[in-house]
Amino acid sequence: MVSEAELFAAVDALLEEGAWLPPLAECARLREAAGISQSVLARVMRSTTQTVKNWENGRSVPQGPRLVAYRRLLEGWAAKYPAPAEGGSAAATASRRRPVQGEQEATGPAGSRARQPSDEETGRRSPQRAAAPPASDPRFPHGPLAVLDGDGAAHGSGGIVLDCPAASVAELVQWACAETGLGAPRLHRYGKDADPLIVLTTAAAVKLGLPEHLEDHEHRRHLPEHHPVVESLVKDGWRLTRRGFGPWTRISRTVEGGVRLTVVPWNALDTWPGIAGMDVPGIARMLGLYAERVITPRGSPALAGLDLMTALRLPTRPVRDKATGNWAPAPNPGSLGTEPVDSGAPGSRPRTPVVVEAGWSGGFLDEEPYEWVQDSDLLTDEERRLPFAVGVEVNAPLLAAAARLPVGLSEPVHVVDPPFDPRIPGCWLVDLSHVEADPRLPSPFTPTGHRPEGPAWYQTHSVAYAQELGCNVRPLEAYLRRETGAYLQPWHDRLKSAYLDTLADLGVTPDLPDAEFLTAMGLHRQVDPALAAVLAAVEATVEGGIGKLGERPRGRHHREGERWPALERATWRPDIRAAVVSKARISMHRKLLAMARMTGRYPLAVHSGCVVYPSPGPSPVDFLPYSASGKAQPAGFRLGPAPGMVRLKSVQPMPWALGLMEQGHSPACHIEEGDPALHGE
Questions:
Q1: Which residues pair with 259 in a beta bridge?
Q2: Residue 470: is it exposed, middle or buried by C-beta count within 10 angstroms (0-12/13-18/19+)?
């Protein structure tokens, strides 16, 4: 029998064949009738204000999932705000807008209520709030999640509060499924809608019969099967995943839909930056914004980063069987498929079964971020006399590296004496030890910045850069992937939008002059703690998601040659991680080299995306390259909010940096905290 998901996918595919939208004037009228600005609509549609303007003036039409979502939104508005009869006033139309939060009592699923204390109660003046933006899907009017407190109030991401009558976990799950209007639309037309997420505070967890602390059970952190809560769920027909009832749990009756629970006292949110110390509405707002801009989480930010890759590049898509007329799953072009692929010995990890079984001893890819300190003896007297060591940090360097990055989609093929082709992803055995390099800069080919000592395995970007520097590269052998694609591009686009939109909400926009940008970045964490936590979570999603591609075994009990869970995923692709890291490191060296050529300045140290320069002043403006007219030079480091641009990391006195370098420590590692113990103070 055909499933609901297959039918929805087929219908959506059919809908997208015709790009029906109302007349342009009607699109704008409906938005204005709902009291929604173009910028708010842009955030809901995961787009930009200019793009929405283009939709409404006819310069462009939304495509793909945005077309379906935008059309659905307009249809919902059309039902709520029909065109006024001829002669009807604009005031009459405006009066039908969605009420501002707090203007009406509970209407909607589960007796939703908007609790808004008066100025007298809070002791402060409440800010004026515009109408809450509508959900992009009318099936989920209350957003993706809610945080439940001990009084039965479920705080949603948009400030709404739902009354939760549940006295047990089983009742909570039933309520969340049937009455809350929580959830999120799928990110891909062939995907699934996100389950409602209920976050349980300590008080809520205890009230529902859960222990305040979770002990390990059979080497896993989950409730035992005989626990009363688990037995009650099973008795009521609910099912748990194989992981059981742990800090993050999915509970369902069908494969298509369920509820996810997050238990805060079980350390479920410990890996989420900025949440510690937040009140319940703050947690709801922070996680809700993250879910709307990135993905509804089901674990750590790292896991969310990996989930987002799969959600945007699904491994399968429905295809109609010509013989039977039924829909069946088929490989989705551009994805990583459903089964793990061999990484090839040099592109794998040292402890993997393929390496141990083959007795491989030919070396491995060592594509890692920089950890380099300049030899202090090479510093000039002029550099030593400069008063400041200024650290700048690249914004989301791995995200910038993921843009338009071709990666291998097929298994590697071993080739001997291959001609180098920079268009083919893979790892190459080549000798780059003869490439001349300035000793005041790190070598581009090793994480330590030291010159290679002989043949080694490199990712395509590293070898291509050697060629760019004038080296005649002659690989000895290679493991190449002939089928390629920009697998990470949708992932990059969504996370970049989330990153820039959140920064813009914090007052950091691309149009700021450099001095104002530095001021805004210096204050952005104090502007709004919840938004600052969202920004940090987006950065953690990037770093962790790329890290998950090459996830190592966990625990002390792992033995060399044993498989670990990550190896069973099609997304265990250390070669893709290596490609991203290699591109980021090469981009760093390219800018270091450009800085040296344009300004004659050389770095003191580089640590991942942070680089420290000696400077005559305490600001990056004092040493970054500018033209005579005051414009930043494009080849070097440039200040700005976009991924790949830089911001101020911190400033310390130059003697502090020199002291660390003479003791063998890296100023780039410690410049933010300025640890005095490391330099004898």
A1: 251
A2: exposed
Lowest pLDDT segment from 32-46, 58-72, 335-349, 481-495:
58-72
Residue 213 makes CB contacts below 8 A (sequence gap 6+) with: 265, 266
CB atoms within 10 A of CB 45: 18
Q: Which two tokens stand for residue 326?
A: 């039924």
Q: How far apart are CA 551 and CA 542, in angstroms?
A: 14
Alpha carbons 110 and 181: distance in angstroms, whole number: 9
Tell me phi and psi for residue 100, to 5 degrees: -65, 145
> Which residues are within 8 A (CB) of 506 and not within 5 positions of it... i.e. 6 or more apart?
520, 524, 527, 528, 531, 532, 535
Q: How many residues would you count in the chain? A: 681
Q: Where are the alpha helices (DSSP H) in 17-129?
A: 24-33, 38-44, 49-57, 64-80, 90-94, 119-122
Q: Where are the alpha helices (DSSP H) in 84-227?
A: 90-94, 119-122, 169-178, 202-207
Q: Is the pLDDT of residue 139 over 60?
A: yes
Q: Are strands 153-156 and 258-263 parallel, antiparallel or unpaired?
A: unpaired
Using CA atoms, how far apart are residues 227 and 11, in angstroms rounded to an integer?
A: 43
Contact 551, 572 (CB under 8 A): yes
- 459: enclosing H helix or E strand: strand 455-459
Give the pLDDT confidence of 573-623 residue by residue, as tens digits: 999 999 999 999 999 999 999 999 999 999 999 999 999 999 999 999 999
**CB of 438 closer than 8 Å to CB of 589:** no
The H or E element spanning position 318 is strand 316-320
* Global model pTM greater than 0.85: no
Q: Which of 486, 460, 484, 482 is nearest to 473 (CA)?
A: 460
The two tokens of residue 267 are: 């350390």
Cite the beta strand spans of 494-589 per DSSP E: none
Surface-to-core class of residue 517, CB atoms within 10 Å of its CB (0-12 exposed, 13-18 middle, 19+ buried): buried
